[in-house]
Amino acid sequence: MLLTFGLPTPAFAAEDPEVVYLLGWVAESGCTFVRNGDEHPSAEAAEHLEMKYKRVRRWIDDADEFIDRIASGSSISGRAYLVRCPGVAEQASRDWLTRALQQHRELLTSQ
User: Fold this and answer.
1) So where are the chain's domains?
2) Are 42 and 81 contacting, i.e. CB atoms less than 8 angstroms apart?
3) Which of 9, 32, 50, 75 is the most exposed place for a label (fewest CB within 10 A)?
4) SS3 content of the chain, % helix, strand, coil (to 5)
């Protein structure tokens, strides 16, 4: 079982540890994800992103590509994914995940 933020999360099928981190971040965020106009809870959003990643991970080199090519928007409609977190303005998932990855990397380098 993977530990993220001290809480147990599912062991995602991702091979890249940063992608695993981001999937855990999404799952545990408690934020609402808007995909093609429909709202989804964070755990459901993480499952969807993991499913997309499983299909194309051989063409994804790193977590930055994961964000850009999988977690930022719909490959079918082309619409951007949005994130609504309590007490924070709605934002693009690309921006939200990029900040999360940057903070994660900074934490790792400071240890």
Assistant:
1) 2-110
2) no
3) 75
4) 50, 20, 30
Pairing between strand 32-35 and 82-84? Answer: antiparallel
In tens digits, the chain (111 residues) has pLDDT values of 333 444 444 444 447 999 999 999 999 999 999 999 999 999 999 999 999 999 998 899 999 999 999 999 998 999 999 999 999 999 999 999 999 999 999 999 998
Token pair belonging to 65: 């590509």
Q: Hunting for tokens 């992608």 — which residue is that?
A: 19
Give the list of residues 6+ apart from residue 106 with CB closer than 8 angstroms, or none.
Answer: none
Structure tokens at 57: 């991970």
What does the buried/exposed string (b/e) look like for 42-77 if buried means 16 or more CB atoms within 10 Å of the residue's CB? beebbbbbbebbeeebeebeebebbbebbbbbeeee
Query: Which stretches of the chain are DSSP H helices?
Result: 17-28, 42-56, 63-69, 93-110
Residue in the structure block whose two tokens are 């194309």: 56
